[in-house]
Amino acid sequence: MSTTEAVTRDAESDRWADVRDLPPSAKLVAKVLDYNETLSQSQLAEETLLPPRTVRYALTRLEDADVVESRFSFSDARKRLYSLKV
């Protein structure tokens, strides 16, 4: 393994350090947000196939760990959009 590969692998593992001890649902939501830049709670429920209540719990845990950020949707102010910070 080259030095560059080792540094990349270490950076990737450090990136997920805050997520490692969270519940599986939070890890899944974080990974889906990693692949999709910004999603609403309902979109996350569709993508993860998790119930909306579980997605809400996962997002709360991720916000408490300061891993995701949320903002209001400009197209629908009733919705919040979530994106990964790590």
UniProtKB/TrEMBL annotation:
CDD domains: HTH_ARSR. It comes from the Archaea. GO terms for biological process: regulation of DNA-templated transcription. Residues 21-78 form the HTH marR-type domain. InterPro entries: ArsR-like_HTH, HTH_MarR-typ, WH-like_DNA-bd_sf, WH_DNA-bd_sf. Pfam families: MarR_2. This is MarR family transcriptional regulator.
